[in-house]
Design brief:
- Strand 1 and strand 2 form a beta hairpin.
- By secondary structure, the chain is of the alpha+beta class.
- Strands 3-4-5-6 form a four-stranded antiparallel beta sheet. The chain has a two-stranded antiparallel ribbon with strand order 1-2.
- The N and C termini lie far apart (about 80 Å).
- The protein contains four helices and six strands, in the order H-H-E-E-H-H-E-E-E-E.
Length: about 190
């Protein structure tokens, strides 16, 4: 009697697994959407997987997905604004200022003491405001190297490759704070 139950359970398990595999293959292949629905016109060259089923096995062949034709994602407006601020700062530091008419400050003011990019709860003076000579005199910068990270809690980091007057090239990280007048640079680090 026990062998009969075990055999019955095994047969039932195989049947359920087989049925589930066929159902998943059919749904994945879109079997339900190719048959009998008015208004659909499927061509023989479909991007849907091909399915062949026999009593013992189910084979699913998936064609490669067509290349994406969607438009690239829009850049983050905060990142664009932060990059523009760093570009203006670097252009000014090499003697080729851009957008001089903009009244937005490039360097964060020393007061109020509201600098806390790490979220520690301790507000300080922005390091670049406390030490305006924090970045050595520059000879050039690689404009295509300026990249921004996603904003976090009102702060954003921008990196750029800069070359000083001695010819040394380094990547610098600019930490900017969002304010009422846009972004201002509060710190520059290596």
């Amino acid at each position: 009697m026990e062998n009969t139950r075990t055999g019955l359970r095994e047969t039932l398990r195989r049947g359920l697994i087989g049925s589930a595999a066929v159902a998943i293959a059919c749904l994945g292949a879109g079997c339900d959407s190719n048959v009998g629905i008015e208004g659909t016109d499927y061509s023989a060259k479909s991007d849907r997987p091909a399915v062949s089923t026999t009593a013992a096995t189910t084979t699913v062949t998936i064609a490669p997905a067509p290349p994406s034709t969607s438009a690239p994602a829009e850049p983050d407006p905060d990142a664009v604004a932060a990059v523009a601020t760093v570009r203006r700062y670097l252009s000014r530091s090499i003697g080729s200022p851009v957008d001089q008419a903009s009244g937005n400050p490039l360097v964060c003011a020393a007061t109020p003491r509201d600098w806390d990019p790490d979220g520690t709860g301790t507000l300080t003076t922005p390091p670049l405001a406390a030490n305006p000579a924090g970045l050595p005199r520059l000879k050039s910068f690689a404009e295509e190297s300026i990249k921004a990270e996603l904003p976090r809690d009102g702060y954003i980091s921008v990196t750029a490759s800069v070359t000083d007057r001695a010819g040394n090239t380094q990547n610098r990280t600019f930490t900017l704070k969002s304010g009422t007048e846009g972004y201002c640079i509060g710190d520059v680090s290596e």
